[in-house]
């Protein structure tokens, strides 16, 4: 899975029916890439999130028939090391 | 999913039958890559689009037997942030 | 799908049976990568081709049991823009 | 599969149910990337590990319904060459 | 598929059962990446090999239940162009 910051949501003038009704978000990856993901959670611009790719992305969107290769799976709060030092995001 | 601008369509002198009859387009990705995708929507050179990769690309093309790993899934108009500022494309 | 120029075919001293009897070609990708693909079409060194990756690559090779993650799917002649200007390759 | 060093575990404020109860770890890849993986082994910060991606990642997590595209599969101790020289990690 | 040179085999202190009993090798890719692959052929350090990724990697390992996303599929001897000039490796 990869880590990204949410930039905003896409406005589409034409879209395939199979995309369903979940919002589609633009993400800035920590690798420098700009990606698009389905969002079943309801994330906001500025949120740090992680995404799941490929076949598991369809399950993550809640229906294996949905057309997606990248889905938001969680909002990141920070991380901890063995020393119990909590770091607030990245 | 990834964001690209449409460059044009491919002319092929030899192609596998399993590609079906959808047009095949050349895309310039915002990551700098040049890619080829099936187009079930009918996009035009200059359009900004997003694509779906891998197994969902076959469903997106309308028939899971079609040979594709990248399919155009929508035309992008712009995006909005929480502040309701709409940005016209990228 | 990605665009490549054919460099030549591989000579192998040991190979898995599941590779079948299709030729295996070395390709120079326009992204700069050197890749190996199955060739069900019979492409020649210098040809510009496009390839299909992952699960669709197995179908493209003609038998879903074949061991491949990249298969040549067509020979590229050029492309056209909306203005009907045809460009001869890349 | 790819090689990474474990940085720590993620704290999430919102997560999909399908992620199950395995810990989710942040990894520094030797390629320079920062990735997130499910951890069925119980690795510690500083451990060198290798991961399995995509569909096999779900099986590696112990249940094909789990939502993951990257799972820790083993802890690396070092490697040996033909000359029986053992190298302690990377 | 991609081309790599074999560096050595991995020694693991902890591994998932689903990895089975095939050796796990460290490969230096011609793209510059360092990767890990299952080896059903028995390749040696210094050998040039090509690998198969993702779902076909599991079949290539001999059992679709094995946990792998990259499997060695053949040892490369060299390649030929149309002019019948044989080049000894890369």
From TrEMBL, chains A, B, C, D, E:
Q: Does the keyword Nucleotide-binding apply?
A: no
Fetch the Pfam families from UniProt: EutN_CcmL
Subcellular locations according to the entry = Bacterial microcompartment
Q: Which Gene3D superfamilies match?
A: EutN/Ccml (2.40.50.220)
GO cellular component terms given for this protein: bacterial microcompartment
Instruction: Determine if Transferase is one of this entry's keywords.
Output: no
Which keywords does UniProt give here? Bacterial microcompartment
Protein name per UniProt: Carboxysome peptide B
What is the organism field in this record? Answer: Thiosulfativibrio zosterae
From the broadest rank down, the organism's phylogenetic lineage runs:
Bacteria, Pseudomonadati, Pseudomonadota, Gammaproteobacteria, Thiotrichales
């Amino acid at each position: 899975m990869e880590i990204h910051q949410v930039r905003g949501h896409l406005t589409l003038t034409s879209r395939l029916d199979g995309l369903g009704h979940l919002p589609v978000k633009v993400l800035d990856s920590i690798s420098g890439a700009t990606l698009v993901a389905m969002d079943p959670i309801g994330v906001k611009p500025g949120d740090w999130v992680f995404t799941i790719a490929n076949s598991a992305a369809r399950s993550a969107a809640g229906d294996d028939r949905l057309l997606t290769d990248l889905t938001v799976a969680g909002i990141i709060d920070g991380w901890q090391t063995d020393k119990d030092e909590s770091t607030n995001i990245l």
